[in-house]
Design brief:
Length: about 240
């Protein structure tokens, strides 16, 4: 496994929100992290990237223990994280935003080539490379946020709610981008609330409920599971 999270507990101060969560992602695999609002999805991913400290448990990436490593070390090892709400720098251009994704030494050395790769993957960004990010549509900003993550040459790209608020047509484009990324051998762990959409993209999924893992398994098993129905349809 490329990523292995075991027995993760996370608290904000005295307020525990995640209990005993374990997640694994193999190289080149697309995996969905699902759950209702407030179930702890963002907290888990923020803990994996080091933005939130671990209370208990272990995070291993490429057979190294990351649990105590600072966030910027994790990026250098090939772990990228696209935060919730497509945080791009609004006053910088598309090209500048992308370049900022290539800050660690290995990524920096490859950034001219990476930029060409991003413009091939996201033709809209190529057309708008001189435009400031705040003038992009929501879908284009999400593509830019993904592109910035990919500029760091990750082996695992973690994306928090990439489909949120996107028009159906843009969801189709995003899906194609995910497939292209995965074909390059980059693993994806993405957060989503729409079970059908997520499990039509991911090969496996994990469903959180109130900070605990309710069920995990292959996408086809999760779709048909009564546990999934109970959590998302309340029946
Ligand atoms: N920075 C924070 N400080 C305190 N509580 C937080 C913070 N971020 C999230 N929480 C709480 O942790 C729980 C899980 O939130 P979150 O991980 O954002 O869930 P999700 O991404 O599944 O919607 C919620 O109860 C939320 O209110
Ligand atoms: Mg969230």
């Amino acid at each position: 496994m490329l990523l292995e999270v075991r027995g993760l507990d996370v608290a904000y101060g005295d307020f525990q929100v995640v209990w005993d969560v374990s997640i694994a992602v193999a190289a080149g695999e697309a995996v969905a992290l699902l759950g209702p609002n407030g179930s702890g999805k963002s907290t888990v991913v923020n803990t994996i990237s080091g933005l939130v400290p671990v209370q208990a448990g272990e995070i291993r990436f490429d057979d190294q223990n990351l649990t105590e490593r600072p966030t910027h070390h994790r990026a250098g090892l090939g772990l990228a994280h696209v935060l919730e709400r497509r945080r791009v720098f609004p006053h910088l251009t598309v090209r500048q935003n992308l370049m900022l994704g290539a800050w660690h030494p290995a990524a920096k050395a490859a950034r001219a080539r990476s930029l060409e790769r991003m413009f091939a993957l996201f033709p809209r960004l190529a057309e708008r490379q001189g435009q400031v990010a705040r003038t992009l549509s929501g879908g284009e900003q999400q593509m830019l946020a993904l592109g910035r993550g990919l500029m760091g040459l990750p082996r695992l790209l973690m994306v928090d709610e990439p489909f949120l608020g996107l028009a159906p047509q843009v969801i189709g484009q995003m899906r194609a981008v995910f497939e292209a990324i995965r074909r390059e051998g980059i693993a994806i762990l993405f957060i989503e609330q729409n079970v059908r959409l997520a499990l039509s993209i991911a090969s496996r999924g994990y469903i959180l409920e109130s900070g605990r893992m309710a069920i995990a398994g292959p996408a086809k098993d999760l779709i048909d599971s009564p546990v999934t129905r109970r959590i998302f349809l309340g029946g």
